[in-house]
Structures are given as structure tokens and as C-alpha cells.
Specification:
This protein is α+β, with helices and mostly antiparallel strands. The chain has one domain: PCu(A)C copper chaperone (Immunoglobulin-like, Sandwich). Strands 1, 2, 3, 4, 5, 6, 7, 8, 9, 10 and 11 form an eleven-stranded mixed sheet that branches. It is about 15% helix and about 45% strand. β1 and β2 form a beta hairpin.
């Protein structure tokens, strides 16, 4: 087998690149207790809107159901836990007391379906590329400090059809 002759600098650069590549997935996910957040995003503000939406993907690796019981952010007056449903082709949002994260399941919050965080009384519009600091409190898993990246709807929703075409934002 032929041996590569690499300088110290080349070896350092290659090792650093390999370590950064290996650490990238871990840097994207955060965990507290059995709850892992693998995606944390928010929508850019609609001109003139005073409220905004936040969306998470949560994985409960445990054997005990958990739930989000509160959230807070310095970008707004307060954060409400919401659900969305379609009734007679009209989108209805309502505040809920908690957002369940069942044991062994994944909850995907997505625009236009199911659960989401609602940023009420925004202090400034949310702009694409910004990060929104949010503290999420769980009934059993403690609390987590997150940075939601403000991204366009199509980047958050991915392949998700819009309401009325399929049921989403639920457990998988």
C-alpha cells in the first residue's frame, strides 16, 4: 500500500474538516432528557403582522409521554402553544394548554397543519436568516434553549401538502 505524504498543515486541515463533518448532525439536534429537537424554524413575518409562527420536530426517545407546557421568547410579548385545524374549508387556530410528545414518537410541527408555537405581539418583524431565541419547557424533560432559524415557508414545510390535502403536524 502506498503511503500519502501529507504536510502537517494538510493533515491538520483534513482532520479539522473530518471532525466538523462528523459533528455537524449533532450540532443540529438538541436534547434534554428523552426529548430531542431535530429541527427548529420560524416563518418570516408577513408585512404588518404582529404575530409569528415557530415549528419544531421533536423526538421522544423515552418510554414516558411528555409534553410542551410553556414557551417564551424575548422577540415577542408572549408565546402561545397553538393548534390549527380545517373546519368547513376555514383554517382555525386555537390556543392549547400543552403540546403532547408521546413516548417513542416523533412530532413534526409544520405550517398549515397541527401544532405550532405562536409568537404574540412581535417587537419587530421576523426576517429570513435571523435566529429567534426560544425557551421551551417540558412537563418531564426540563427546559431547552433553542435558536429557531427564520426560513421561507417552502423550506419549513418541505414536501408537506397544504391544509385540506392531507393530515400532518401530528405524530409519526
Amino acid at each position: 500500500m502506498k503511503r500519502l505524504n501529507l504536510s502537517r498543515r494538510q493533515t491538520l486541515v483534513m482532520t479539522s474538516a473530518l471532525l466538523m463533518w462528523a459533528a455537524a448532525p449533532a450540532a443540529l439536534a438538541q436534547r434534554t432528557g428523552d426529548i430531542e429537537v431535530t429541527r427548529a424554524q420560524a416563518l418570516p413575518s408577513i408585512p404588518g403582522a404582529r404575530n409569528g409562527g415557530g415549528f419544531l420536530t421533536l423526538v421522544n426517545h423515552g418510554q414516558q409521554d411528555d409534553k410542551i407546557v410553556a414557551a417564551a421568547s424575548p422577540v415577542c410579548g408572549h408565546v402561545e402553544l397553538h393548534t390549527m385545524s380545517m373546519e368547513n374549508n376555514i383554517m382555525r387556530m386555537r390556543e392549547v394548554g400543552d403540546i403532547p410528545v408521546p413516548a417513542g414518537k416523533t412530532l413534526r410541527m409544520q405550517p398549515g397543519s397541527g401544532y405550532h408555537l405562536m409568537f404574540m405581539d412581535l417587537k419587530a418583524p421576523l426576517k429570513e436568516g435571523e435566529r429567534v431565541p426560544v425557551t421551551v419547557k417540558f412537563a418531564h424533560g426540563g427546559q431547552m434553549e433553542l435558536q429557531l432559524k427564520v426560513e421561507p415557508r417552502d423550506k419549513i414545510a418541505g414536501d408537506v401538502p397544504m391544509p385540506g390535502k392531507a393530515m400532518h403536524g401530528g405524530m409519526h
